[in-house]
């Protein structure tokens, strides 16, 4: 259960990787990963390629990230969810709220 971040050299693209389980136990780590990044127009990439489990609290955390991004005129992109995670995102209709790259 790990949240990792990588920031681009120009400080305008933050990649967040959630490994294994994405649930409420990751709440503080996830929030800490993005909250200090406030550059106007910033891109937040949430890499779900290593995420094997996601619950409803994770969906809420993604919405909080979306709110943060929008507050600084930024954008969020969800990247590489596996089939199980994709199904959860589709049921929650997240494709209507943000970009999802498969």
Number of helices: 3
List low-pLDDT spans.
none
Count of domain modules: 1
Helix content: 25-40%
CATH topology: Transcription Regulator spoIIAA
CATH class type: Alpha Beta
Q: What is the assigned CATH homologous superfamily?
A: STAS domain
For the termini, the CA-CA separation is 22 Å
Cα Rg: 12 Å
Describe this structure in words.
The protein is of the alpha/beta class. It has one domain: Transcription Regulator spoIIAA (2-Layer Sandwich). It has 3 helices and 6 strands. Strands 1, 2, 3, 4, 5 and 6 form a 6-stranded mixed beta sheet that branches. Helix 1 links the parallel strand 2 and strand 3. It is globular, with a radius of gyration of 12 Å. It starts with a strand and ends with a strand. The mean pLDDT is 96.
Task: Provide a brief overview of the structure.
This protein is an alpha/beta fold. Helices cover 33% and strands 32% of the residues. A hairpin with a 5-residue loop joins strand 1 and strand 2 (13-22).
Short descriptors:
single chain; 102 residues; alpha/beta; Transcription Regulator spoIIAA; 6-stranded mixed β-sheet; 3 helices; 6 strands; 33% helix; globular
């Amino acid at each position: 259960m790990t949240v990792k971040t990588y920031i681009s050299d120009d400080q305008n693209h933050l990649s967040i990787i959630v490994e294994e389980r994405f649930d409420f136990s990751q709440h503080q780590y996830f929030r800490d990963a993005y909250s200090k990044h406030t550059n106007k127009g910033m891109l937040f990439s949430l890499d779900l390629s290593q995420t094997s489990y996601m619950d409803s609290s994770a969906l809420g955390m993604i919405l909080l990230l979306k709110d943060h991004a929008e507050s600084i005129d930024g954008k969020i992109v969800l990247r590489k969810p596996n089939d199980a995670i994709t199904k959860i995102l589709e049921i929650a209709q997240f494709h209507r709220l943000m970009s999802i790259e498969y």
